[in-house]
Amino acid sequence: MKNIKDMKRILYYSTLLALILSFTSCGDDFLDRKNLFQMDESSYYSNPQQINEALTAVYGALPTEHGFSSEVLVAELMSDDRFAGGGPEDIGAQGLDQFTLTKDDLFDNLWAEAYVGIFRANMLIMHFDQAEFDDQEQHDQLLGEAYFLRAYFYFRLAKFFGTVPLITDPTGEKNLPKAPVDDIFAQIGTDLKTAIDLMAPKTFDNFVSGHATKWAAEALMARVYLFYTGTYNKESMPLNEEGTVSKTDVQNWLIDLINNSGHQLVSDFRNIWPYAHNNDYAYKRDNNLEWVGEDPQSGNTETVFAIKFGPLADWNGKLHYANQVPLFMGFRGLNNTPFGKGWGWGTVNPQLWDSFEDGDIRQAGSIISINNPDEGSEFLDKYQPGGWNAQQETGYWNKKYVPITEKADDGKWYGMYYLMYGGTANIQLWNMQDQIIIRYADVLLMAAELGCPDAQSYLDMVRARAGLPSVPVTLENIKNERRHELAFEGLRYHDLMRWHDLETAFSVVTDIPILNAKVPATYNQVYRPETNGFLAIPPSQIRISGGVLEQNPGW
Fold first, then answer.
1. What pLDDT, in 10s, does the model give residues 329-353?
2. Which of 408, 413, 334, 343 is nearest to 375 (CA)?
3. Which of 186, 211, 265, 530 is the least crowded, having the fewest Cβ atoms under 10 Å away?
4. Sign of dihedral through CA atoms 185, 191, 196, 197?
5. Distance between the two ends of the chain, CA-based, in angstroms?
6. How far apart, in whole angstroms, are the C-alpha atoms of residue 66 and residue 103?
7. Which is it for the CA torsion 370, 337, 378, 331, positive or negative?
């Protein structure tokens, strides 16, 4: 198995296929000889190595370069538990928080970068049979990962934009209208079922970190099923041609994952997050925390699927090698230890802090409170509320995705990952934290919500780790548990959507005390039900389509 530094290199080859396919011959080759460097779709995809390279290019579309192309960042700013924050110039974030389109191109990259991934996956799937494999298991695994990724990109689009064009043939018509929602989810469901059937049922630690597994496909199927059936009031999810995905099907897939994947809860919830690595952090020392790292070999049994990053980030088209979420969510104007400087987006609604039960370690394990002395004087003594024209500052910040800095031998603070892996000593380039997309705790809570036979046990396991007693496995209790266990992981908003709780949740976010550039004010969050919870189709895409695409309601 590869070591942790090798895992971070997975992303390095993400542009390889694009570079290879960009080679073209001159109009008149010298001496009319064939250009031996030419490689296109007819000559590529010819062996397992090239298939693997092409698959790596599909994975390379998962990390995003722009703030508003990050599904986690956008979903968090849309949530009732987060405010826009930032500075006076961050009108895009502040508009998103109020369901207004303050910039015409706000969601262009969220839309376009998903279709880049879909195009690469379509090309790979279409040409997959050009390669000859000696190892059938390798063939099936790589093909299954391609189907998983196509489903993943389409679900990213569907949960934010509702109905979108459905393209599975990369050589066909590109300027298509929105597909019916049932067709979109039939494609997602069919791709995921295909992936589940193809990929090997090996325990998770037999796979390369960052790659999709059978277990990731089963977990994503559950998430998609819950979103589709909840949002659209359905009993089952369609598949292409014949058949459906039923509740029983999803229950069985989750039980398979729980019983056979090898995934387990990390013993201490706080050890999942990078702050548990910093020995200069009083909270880490006082609670005897020890970061489990990001890969099975380092002890992380909980991550089911994550987007990987690495140290090759630069300003020449490689910004996406760094995780932009911690940068945007870092403290505005503060660069200290353990928390480094960022753009100050996503300040935390105090109502979330107040909603935790007494004794829940996830409260201080997930949220930085400037009034909590347990955070340690090293941090609090440096913090200046409302500094650097900070907006919508509440005194609460997320602790899961924030730059972590540590002291180097020269006595200066650097990004934790920069000290581990190298790269560039720059606050915008040194955040390489995995973006965890699916955790085992989420799997247990989905299984409980779907009424699996051991639903009570699954809920109890998550609560016991947080230091809490058992509660009945009711939908209301599961809703509360998801809010607290999965805070800041990009799931809250779409949970509210599928539960039809958006209006209720936003209606109580009123008169929240904040600081705008040190000036006391109050804040009311806005949700506009006429949008049905979906974002605007990028106006540029509507213009490019010549009117084939229609704008979403409410925008």
1. 999 877 778 999 999 999 999 999 9
2. 334
3. 530
4. positive
5. 49
6. 14
7. negative
